[in-house]
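During the reporting period the student researcher (J.K.) took over the structure-prediction task from the postdoctoral fellow and processed the backlog of single-chain submissions. One of the processed entries is reproduced below for the supervisory committee.
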Amino acid sequence: MSKDDIKILLDEIRHDRELLGKKEVSLKARESDLIDKLERVSGMTRIEARKILLDEFQRSLTSEVAKKIRQAEEKIKLEAKEKAKEILADAMKHGATTYVAEYTVSTVTVESEETKGRIIGREGRNIRSFEKETGVEIELDEGNVIRLSSFDSIRREIARRALEMLLKDTRIQPSRIEEVVRLVKSQMEDILLEEGKKIAQECGVFNLPTEVVKLIGRFKFRTSYGQNLALHTIEETKIGVSVASEIGADTEIVRLGCILHDIGKVVTDVEGNHVDAGVATVKRFGFPKEVIAAVAEHHEDKPFSSTESVIVWIADAVSGSRPGARYEPFEDYVKRMTKIEEISGSFPGVDQAIAFQAGRDVRVIVKPEEVDEDKLTVLANDIVSRLEKEAEYAGQVKVTVIRETRAQATTTAK
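J.K. obtained the following structure tokens:
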């Protein structure tokens, strides 16, 4: 290509560039003109229009995100329910125990009426001496059965062992009775210590104070609605620890909370219900505040203060309410619940009274036109007072009085 040809080509390129520049200027002017027209028609500036578009996009994006979150939450809830079932099932499986509990025996069988006569003694001196030494009443039934009666399960156990020893010895007289009862009492302290060690070992708890171990040993001779307290405690502790380990809670707090939750049931020197007695006991021996809270909250008498407290409550409920755990006759259960409802519903202004949770929770619905707001608290306290005097119940009864306020209006007929 010659120089002239190159020059012509360069001139053409310059010409085309100039034309493109002019068209670009024209298009920008046209664009600016159209934007001005759009702004006049829409009544807003370009910046305002951009903001509206961005806001609309943001709303659309937020809606989509919220939808995804809801879907994820539903999926998590479904999976969580299944996981919770697996955890509890696995916990109950691990709660199975080989510990053999001996239920408290309140009767002793004798060979003959002659043997029963030797227990009574001349003019009843033997039976009086036995009752004095043991603090247990002897009831002689027809047949070859002697019943031992006492609210103190340990006294009753000492009496049972002493009576069986005397029957084998055949030398039944006041001095011998004193000697045997004294011997059994001294042995009982060692028995309680050994039984407490066995229960603590089954629960995986060590280095407890000796006095606490002895109290735990009393569990073997204590039942609640037919469920042996030692067996219940071991089962509950294994369930609680298994649940705690699965969800990442403090297993040691749960372990101590479970083994000590019912210790108030075997404490005889503290007034109040078993929860208050248990709290006082664990405080006296300096257990951590989290353990004290678990003991105080295991019947929901106080709001839960930690996940560990909730787990102790769950484990207690699972062990106590599983089929076959407790042997309270159905008739007695119905009678007890009916009595609580009758007492609660007998006050003026009460419309309905319903007992829940084996009688530990009572909901009382009042007639709003007869009972005003000021009388609710008084009524609740009056119901509690009568329940304490006349009803049979386990633990504590929480009475909730409900007064419903209604507003009503009617449209005119058309």
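The committee noted the following: The radius of gyration is 40 Å.
J.K. will present the remaining backlog at the next meeting.
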